[in-house]
Specification:
Blueprint: E1 22-23, E2 28-29, E3 42-45, E4 57-60, H1 69-73, H2 78-84, E5 89-91, H3 103-122, E6 127-130, H4 136-139, E7 158-162, H5 170-187, E8 191-195, H6 200-203, E9 211-215, H7 218-223, E10 229-231
Parallel strand pairs: 3-4, 4-5, 5-6, 6-7, 7-8, 8-9
Antiparallel strand pairs: 1-2, 9-10
């Protein structure tokens, strides 16, 4: 009788990237450029999709990670497929990248976002890459020869970022501002979707570098009667 061994997950979920293109020296899973740029009318958090009837919405994951644990564990689960089927497309998960975490932990969060985004794309879902960086090691070449936070993201296309908490303290603000400039330099996106506020103190000098499209968070949008977005 052949020996049978229990498979213990190593956390990388290699099954998600079996057919994915890998980018860069560290082989980050890639979310490829779609055939056309679609600018969503509304960005709706994953946990709120069932409460939004807007037909031209995209699902996003700008909320506590615990609200999309099912997606992190298996993006092909039935709840996820039902919710995403209500949307025109999806932005890849915004997995938390903590500034005080070891470099490898920050990289793992970025990897997980790309891997799930690549899986969504392989399922035929229009997918926009979420770009989330941590400290300067993730968005510069101080450690690696390429900025890991931007690997696996198509250049000259559309990307999405979340701005909540960008000003909560001096260090967070510093890293967000520097990472944002580095992202614009490296990816040269045609459109940047911004979920959350766009304070002039951060974005004021950058609005001529690309087309920013700002979206209110879910609670703010509900208070405004379902506000959609504004162009910058």
């Amino acid at each position: 009788m052949a020996n049978r061994f229990a498979k213990i997950s190593d956390g990388f979920q290699e099954e998600l990237i079996m057919n994915a293109r890998l980018d860069g020296l560290i082989q980050m899973p890639a979310i490829d450029r779609e055939k056309e740029i679609i600018v969503p009318e509304r960005l709706v958090p994953y946990s709120k999709i069932d409460y939004c009837e807007e037909p031209n919405k995209f699902g996003v994951f700008y909320e506590d990670d615990i609200n999309f644990t099912d997606v992190l564990e298996n993006p092909e689960n039935e709840l996820c497929k039902r919710r995403i089927a209500q949307c025109m497309g999806v932005v890849s998960p915004d997995c938390s990248v903590f500034l005080n975490a070891p470099f490898i932990v920050q990289l793992m969060a970025i990897y997980r976002s790309r891997a799930i985004g690549a899986k969504f794309q392989s399922m035929g879902i229009y997918t926009i890459a979420n770009v989330r960086w941590g400290d300067e090691r993730t968005y510069t070449t101080s450690i690696l020869p390429e900025p890991a936070a931007f690997l696996g993201v198509p250049k000259h296309f559309v990307v999405s970022i979340g701005s909540h908490g960008a000003c909560k303290n001096t260090e967070v603000r510093h890293q967000f501002c520097n990472g944002l400039v580095a992202m614009l330099d490296y990816l040269e996106p045609e459109v940047v979707l911004v979920y959350g506020p766009m304070p002039k103190s951060i974005f004021g000098d950058l609005v001529n570098r690309t087309r920013f499209v700002q979206y209110d968070d879910w609670i703010t949008a509900q208070h405004k009667g379902g506000a959609r977005h504004g162009n910058w």
